[in-house]
Specification:
229 residues, alpha/beta, six-stranded mixed β-sheet, 8 helices, 29% helix, globular
Length: 229
Protein backbone atom coordinates (compact mmCIF):
# COMPACT_ATOMS: atom_id res chain seq x y z
CA UNK A 1 0.00 0.00 0.00
CA UNK A 2 1.35 3.45 -0.80
CA UNK A 3 1.64 6.08 1.91
CA UNK A 4 -1.06 8.12 0.19
CA UNK A 5 -3.45 5.15 0.09
CA UNK A 6 -2.74 4.34 3.72
CA UNK A 7 -3.56 7.87 4.85
CA UNK A 8 -6.55 8.42 2.56
CA UNK A 9 -9.18 8.13 5.37
CA UNK A 10 -7.53 11.07 7.18
CA UNK A 11 -7.49 13.89 4.60
CA UNK A 12 -6.81 16.60 7.19
CA UNK A 13 -3.33 15.31 7.99
CA UNK A 14 -0.53 17.58 6.77
CA UNK A 15 1.58 15.67 4.25
CA UNK A 16 4.93 16.57 2.75
CA UNK A 17 7.02 14.64 0.26
CA UNK A 18 6.57 11.43 -1.72
CA UNK A 19 3.16 9.86 -1.06
CA UNK A 20 3.90 7.05 -3.53
CA UNK A 21 6.32 5.39 -1.11
CA UNK A 22 5.30 1.81 -0.43
CA UNK A 23 4.51 1.04 3.23
CA UNK A 24 4.54 -2.57 4.43
CA UNK A 25 4.57 -2.00 8.18
CA UNK A 26 4.01 0.58 10.92
CA UNK A 27 6.44 0.87 13.82
CA UNK A 28 6.99 2.99 16.92
CA UNK A 29 10.34 1.31 17.65
CA UNK A 30 13.36 2.91 15.99
CA UNK A 31 15.11 -0.47 16.05
CA UNK A 32 12.40 -1.92 13.78
CA UNK A 33 12.43 0.94 11.29
CA UNK A 34 13.92 0.59 7.83
CA UNK A 35 12.92 0.58 4.16
CA UNK A 36 9.18 0.06 3.78
CA UNK A 37 8.37 1.19 7.32
CA UNK A 38 6.37 4.20 8.46
CA UNK A 39 7.82 5.27 11.78
CA UNK A 40 5.33 6.97 14.09
CA UNK A 41 6.92 9.13 16.79
CA UNK A 42 4.82 8.79 19.94
CA UNK A 43 5.22 10.67 23.19
CA UNK A 44 4.61 8.20 26.02
CA UNK A 45 5.01 8.00 29.77
CA UNK A 46 8.49 6.49 29.51
CA UNK A 47 9.91 8.00 26.32
CA UNK A 48 9.49 10.18 23.27
CA UNK A 49 9.86 8.75 19.78
CA UNK A 50 10.83 12.16 18.42
CA UNK A 51 14.19 11.77 20.16
CA UNK A 52 15.09 8.83 17.93
CA UNK A 53 14.49 10.31 14.48
CA UNK A 54 18.21 10.34 13.69
CA UNK A 55 18.42 6.62 14.45
CA UNK A 56 15.30 6.01 12.36
CA UNK A 57 16.83 7.81 9.40
CA UNK A 58 20.02 5.77 9.74
CA UNK A 59 18.02 2.56 9.18
CA UNK A 60 16.97 3.70 5.71
CA UNK A 61 13.40 4.49 6.77
CA UNK A 62 12.00 7.17 4.45
CA UNK A 63 8.60 7.98 5.96
CA UNK A 64 7.77 9.35 9.41
CA UNK A 65 4.77 10.72 11.25
CA UNK A 66 5.46 13.29 13.94
CA UNK A 67 3.85 15.90 16.16
CA UNK A 68 6.79 18.27 15.65
CA UNK A 69 8.18 18.74 12.15
CA UNK A 70 11.39 20.49 13.23
CA UNK A 71 13.69 17.43 13.19
CA UNK A 72 12.55 15.73 9.99
CA UNK A 73 14.97 17.03 7.36
CA UNK A 74 16.20 14.26 5.07
CA UNK A 75 13.09 12.06 5.13
CA UNK A 76 11.36 11.46 1.80
CA UNK A 77 7.88 11.81 3.35
CA UNK A 78 6.73 13.51 6.54
CA UNK A 79 3.24 13.41 8.04
CA UNK A 80 2.30 15.92 10.73
CA UNK A 81 -0.39 15.03 13.30
CA UNK A 82 -1.63 16.88 16.37
CA UNK A 83 -1.46 13.72 18.48
CA UNK A 84 0.10 10.45 17.35
CA UNK A 85 -0.89 8.29 20.33
CA UNK A 86 -3.69 6.33 18.63
CA UNK A 87 -2.11 6.44 15.17
CA UNK A 88 -0.04 3.21 15.28
CA UNK A 89 -3.16 1.15 16.02
CA UNK A 90 -5.37 2.97 13.50
CA UNK A 91 -2.86 2.73 10.67
CA UNK A 92 -1.98 -0.89 11.47
CA UNK A 93 -5.67 -1.78 11.40
CA UNK A 94 -5.98 -0.26 7.93
CA UNK A 95 -2.76 -1.85 6.67
CA UNK A 96 -3.97 -5.26 7.89
CA UNK A 97 -7.31 -4.80 6.09
CA UNK A 98 -9.50 -4.15 9.16
CA UNK A 99 -9.22 -7.73 10.42
CA UNK A 100 -11.57 -7.21 13.36
CA UNK A 101 -14.44 -6.88 10.88
CA UNK A 102 -13.91 -10.52 9.89
CA UNK A 103 -14.05 -11.79 13.47
CA UNK A 104 -16.55 -12.03 16.30
CA UNK A 105 -14.69 -9.99 18.90
CA UNK A 106 -14.91 -10.27 22.69
CA UNK A 107 -12.85 -8.09 25.02
CA UNK A 108 -12.37 -8.44 28.78
CA UNK A 109 -11.01 -5.86 31.20
CA UNK A 110 -10.85 -5.82 35.00
CA UNK A 111 -8.33 -5.91 37.80
CA UNK A 112 -8.70 -9.66 38.31
CA UNK A 113 -10.24 -12.51 36.36
CA UNK A 114 -9.43 -11.38 32.82
CA UNK A 115 -7.49 -14.51 31.92
CA UNK A 116 -10.10 -16.92 33.30
CA UNK A 117 -12.96 -15.15 31.54
CA UNK A 118 -11.06 -14.90 28.26
CA UNK A 119 -10.40 -18.66 28.28
CA UNK A 120 -14.07 -19.37 29.01
CA UNK A 121 -15.05 -17.04 26.17
CA UNK A 122 -12.64 -18.80 23.89
CA UNK A 123 -14.29 -22.13 24.55
CA UNK A 124 -17.78 -20.76 24.00
CA UNK A 125 -16.92 -18.78 20.87
CA UNK A 126 -15.01 -21.75 19.49
CA UNK A 127 -18.15 -23.89 19.68
CA UNK A 128 -20.28 -21.17 18.09
CA UNK A 129 -18.02 -19.74 15.39
CA UNK A 130 -15.21 -22.19 14.75
CA UNK A 131 -11.56 -21.62 15.77
CA UNK A 132 -11.13 -18.76 18.22
CA UNK A 133 -7.96 -16.70 18.52
CA UNK A 134 -6.61 -15.44 21.83
CA UNK A 135 -4.74 -12.37 23.06
CA UNK A 136 -3.96 -12.28 26.76
CA UNK A 137 -1.60 -12.41 29.68
CA UNK A 138 -0.33 -15.94 29.08
CA UNK A 139 -0.05 -16.14 25.30
CA UNK A 140 -1.24 -15.04 21.88
CA UNK A 141 -2.79 -17.67 19.60
CA UNK A 142 -3.71 -17.09 15.95
CA UNK A 143 -5.41 -20.45 15.49
CA UNK A 144 -2.24 -22.09 14.18
CA UNK A 145 0.66 -20.70 16.17
CA UNK A 146 0.96 -19.82 19.86
CA UNK A 147 3.58 -17.49 21.35
CA UNK A 148 4.22 -16.36 24.94
CA UNK A 149 2.75 -12.94 25.67
CA UNK A 150 5.21 -10.16 26.60
CA UNK A 151 2.25 -7.88 27.41
CA UNK A 152 -1.36 -8.63 28.32
CA UNK A 153 -2.44 -6.41 25.41
CA UNK A 154 0.30 -5.66 22.88
CA UNK A 155 0.91 -2.30 21.21
CA UNK A 156 -1.36 -1.40 18.32
CA UNK A 157 1.01 -2.53 15.57
CA UNK A 158 1.41 -5.98 17.12
CA UNK A 159 -2.23 -6.18 18.18
CA UNK A 160 -3.63 -5.78 14.66
CA UNK A 161 -0.93 -7.98 13.19
CA UNK A 162 -2.20 -10.83 15.37
CA UNK A 163 -5.81 -10.15 14.43
CA UNK A 164 -4.74 -10.27 10.78
CA UNK A 165 -3.09 -13.64 11.36
CA UNK A 166 -6.27 -14.95 12.99
CA UNK A 167 -8.37 -13.88 10.00
CA UNK A 168 -5.86 -15.41 7.57
CA UNK A 169 -5.90 -18.68 9.52
CA UNK A 170 -9.71 -18.78 9.31
CA UNK A 171 -10.52 -18.04 12.92
CA UNK A 172 -14.14 -17.06 13.33
CA UNK A 173 -13.67 -15.14 16.57
CA UNK A 174 -11.17 -13.80 19.09
CA UNK A 175 -11.16 -13.51 22.89
CA UNK A 176 -8.99 -10.68 24.20
CA UNK A 177 -7.77 -9.38 27.50
CA UNK A 178 -7.68 -5.59 27.23
CA UNK A 179 -5.74 -4.00 30.06
CA UNK A 180 -6.36 -0.55 31.52
CA UNK A 181 -2.93 0.51 30.28
CA UNK A 182 -3.88 -0.56 26.75
CA UNK A 183 -7.15 1.34 26.90
CA UNK A 184 -5.48 4.47 28.26
CA UNK A 185 -2.71 4.30 25.63
CA UNK A 186 -5.08 3.63 22.68
CA UNK A 187 -3.38 0.33 21.80
CA UNK A 188 -6.75 -0.97 20.54
CA UNK A 189 -7.86 2.23 18.78
CA UNK A 190 -10.28 1.52 15.95
CA UNK A 191 -11.28 -1.89 17.30
CA UNK A 192 -14.92 -2.89 17.03
CA UNK A 193 -16.09 -5.18 19.84
CA UNK A 194 -19.14 -7.42 19.73
CA UNK A 195 -18.83 -8.22 23.45
CA UNK A 196 -17.27 -6.08 26.21
CA UNK A 197 -16.86 -7.41 29.75
CA UNK A 198 -15.56 -5.72 32.90
CA UNK A 199 -14.93 -8.20 35.70
CA UNK A 200 -14.18 -5.90 38.65
CA UNK A 201 -12.18 -2.90 39.87
CA UNK A 202 -9.49 -3.30 42.51
CA UNK A 203 -6.70 -1.03 43.70
CA UNK A 204 -3.86 -2.28 41.50
CA UNK A 205 -1.99 -0.06 39.00
CA UNK A 206 -2.64 3.16 40.91
CA UNK A 207 1.03 4.03 40.38
CA UNK A 208 0.05 4.51 36.73
CA UNK A 209 -3.57 5.71 36.99
CA UNK A 210 -2.96 7.80 40.16
CA UNK A 211 -6.40 7.26 41.69
CA UNK A 212 -9.42 4.98 41.48
CA UNK A 213 -11.47 7.44 39.45
CA UNK A 214 -8.85 7.59 36.68
CA UNK A 215 -8.46 3.82 36.85
CA UNK A 216 -12.23 3.38 36.47
CA UNK A 217 -12.36 5.81 33.55
CA UNK A 218 -9.60 3.89 31.79
CA UNK A 219 -11.41 0.57 32.28
CA UNK A 220 -14.72 2.08 31.19
CA UNK A 221 -13.09 2.96 27.89
CA UNK A 222 -13.82 -0.58 26.74
CA UNK A 223 -17.47 0.45 26.29
CA UNK A 224 -16.46 2.95 23.59
CA UNK A 225 -15.08 0.05 21.54
CA UNK A 226 -18.46 -1.66 21.17
CA UNK A 227 -19.78 -1.75 17.62
CA UNK A 228 -22.67 0.58 16.89
CA UNK A 229 -24.72 -2.28 15.41
Amino acid sequence: MTLGQLLAPWPRLALQGNLDLMVDRITVDSRQAGPGALFVAVRGSSGDGHRYLDKVQATGCQAVMVEDIQETAGFAAVVLADNTRAVPALLSRRLEGNPDLSLVTAGVTGTNGKTTVSYLLRQMLGHLHGPCGLIGTINYDDGVQTEPAPLTTPGGTVFYHWLGRMRDHRCGSVAMEISSHALDQDRTAGLGLDVAIMTNLGRDHLDYHQDLEQYLQAKAGIISLLRAE
